Amino acid sequence: MTELLDKGALDVYYQPVTMKKSRLGTLITVICPPDQIHNCAAIIFRQTSTLGIRITENQRLQLQREIHQVMLPLGKARVKVAYRCGRVTIQPEYDDCAAIARHHQLPLNVVQDMVIAAYKASLAN
User: Fold this and answer.
1) Pairing assessment for the beta strands 64-72 and 11-18 based on DSSP bridges
2) Binning pLDDT at 50, 70 and 90, where does residue 124 land?
3) Residue 62 pairs with which residues in a beta bridge?
4) Neighbours of 79 (CB within 10 A)
5) What is the Cα–Cα distance from 116 to 113, expressed in whole angstroms?
6) What is the pTM (predicted TM-score) of this model?
7) How does pLDDT run across 29-58, given as a tens digit for each residue?
8) Using an 8 Å Cβ cutoff, are 6 and 30 in contact?
9) What is the C-alpha to C-alpha distance for residues 97 and 72, in angstroms, rounded to an integer?
10) Cα 109 vs. chain centroid, distance in angstroms?
């Protein structure tokens, strides 16, 4: 997973599955840009015992978004702000929050809540 994400995959996830003849297996789903398909496939062939990969092209819809930075007493964190149908969605940047949480030995959700509160407070100023 780490290598795939480092080499251009946008997301990777695993699911336990029952394959033909009732054999247990793992379904690996890799979401990547079209120009990264062959790089990601090469990693999967090298790192697993699979003999084949199914490729499906999908469309992606994205919300309009902006990235802002907030300052907490514990450090800086980015927050993604997305707009849809007149509503605003605020999503703290996971990597920033996780790093702060590890460094200060806090639960991740506490840091995420702090980031959201700091962003909302910045709007009031």
Assistant:
1) unpaired
2) confident
3) none
4) 22
5) 5
6) 0.70
7) 999 999 999 999 999 999 999 999 999 999
8) no
9) 11
10) 16
